[in-house]
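Replying to the earlier thread about multi-chain prediction with a worked example.

Input:
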Amino acid sequence: MKAKANTRRRSVAVKRGSKAASAAGKYGAIRRELQKQRQAILDEAGEGLTKREGPEAFPDVSDQASAEVDQNFSMRIKEREQKLLKKIDEALDRLSKNIYGICERCEEEIPYQRLKARPVTTLCIGCKTLQEQEEKIRR
Ligand SMILES: [Zn+2]
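Result:
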């Protein structure tokens, strides 16, 4: 009765698998990735602040000028990072409310592959394409 034993073992495995897939488990990898990205942005922002500390770090005038250019540059990056950070926070918020992975436009589930590639997305491919077409018309 080998076949019967195999079937039973498989059903146990399925049960365990579905338990892991529920709630946080389903998007566990994505949640970790979002938290990693969030930490990376925060770490970089912190580094930028310590680098700018005190004029003695730039004894030379030309160094100081280039430091200002760097500052402008890092501020521009920061703006982009702020936006991403906000998106990451919103995605984590949706994860904690168990509404993550639902397209905000058609309310269909967004395919896991798309979420994995772009974890902060709030739209499925179809709606994203529509939105882009609308933006083109508006411009
Ligand atoms: Zn959609």
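The CA atoms of residues 39 and 94 lie 18 Å apart.

Feel free to reuse this layout for your own posts.
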